[in-house]
Design goal:
The chain contains three helices and three strands; from the N terminus they run E-E-H-H-E-H. The chain is α+β, with helices and mostly antiparallel strands and 86 residues long. The radius of gyration is 15 Å and the shape is globular. The N and C termini lie far apart (41 Å). The relative contact order is 0.20.
Length: 86
């Protein structure tokens, strides 16, 4: 990546959940996997519902300016076969 682009804000507690970067209007933004974050929270002792709530009401709403991280919801396209067949 170009050295003259502003750096993204990184969530150091979730390094293993980083899946990539995007350039948004010249700003580099980190992209984190929602599934991996929830899994990491559960490994840390939270129940699934607690982890989802923590993510949805905390991390996903956190705004640190234009360099704020983005969150990727991953899914298997084969899981949507009914939608794709129509």
């Amino acid at each position: 990546m170009s050295a003259n682009r502003p750096a993204s804000v990184y969530l150091t507690a979730y390094e293993e959940c980083l899946v990539g970067h995007v350039v948004d209007n010249g700003i580099v933004r980190a992209v984190y996997s929602i599934e991996r974050i929830i899994t990491q929270l559960m490994v840390g002792g939270m129940e699934y519902d607690e982890a989802v709530e923590y993510f949805e009401k905390g991390l996903s709403l956190m705004y640190i300016g234009r360099r704020s991280p983005l969150y990727l919801e991953e899914w298997d396209m084969d899981d949507n076969t009914e939608e794709n067949d129509g």
